[in-house]
Amino acid sequence: MSTRPEQTLSNQICHSLYSATNAMVRAYRPLLEPLDLTYPQYLVMLALWEADGIAVKELVRQTRFDSGSLTPILKRLEQKGLIERKRSQSDERQRVIQLTQAGRNKQREAQSVPELFYCRTGMTAEQAMTIKELTETLYQHLAMLEPVES
């Protein structure tokens, strides 16, 4: 049986992205271990270091985690004393996530992580930006195909 080129594993974009993502998470592991953070926790902390005191709904939008995945991450970060989950003063139904002092201090501890990771990639700055732009474009196009949650 002959296989058409578009049906081979080696020609699948999804396989390359999936493999690269897994390798990237593994490459981050030794960088995040001293910080006692997992990769998903690190992404949440990056979002909070950028905008502290935001609603969970906004954090879902920024991190692109669904709320079912984000909730256990937030619980673990709260157990570690890095964040506090509070009720919004303007809308009691909403939760607002705020960094604790320990969470703000963690940003200083993590400041070398991006550069250390970048050094592991073996790419030029231009190559890295091209990949970032292309994957963002791909994400935006594919996200438009998803049903809108109400």
Describe the structure in brief:
This protein is mainly alpha-helical and 150 residues long. Helices cover 60% and strands 8% of the residues. The chain has one domain (13-143): Arc Repressor Mutant, subunit A (Orthogonal Bundle).
Spell out the blueprint of helices and strands.
Blueprint: H1 13-32, H2 39-50, E1 54-55, H3 56-63, H4 67-79, E2 83-87, E3 95-99, H5 101-109, H6 113-121, H7 125-143
Antiparallel strand pairs: 1-3, 2-3
Rough outline: globular
Helix content: 55-70%
Q: Kindly report how far apart the N and C termini lie.
A: 46 Å
Question: Which ranges are low-confidence, i.e. pLDDT below 50, for 5 or more consecutive residues?
Answer: none
CATH superfamily: Winged helix-like DNA-binding domain superfamily/Winged helix DNA-binding domain
Q: Domains counted in the coordinates: how many?
A: 1
Beta fraction: 5-15%
Largest sheet: 3 strands, antiparallel
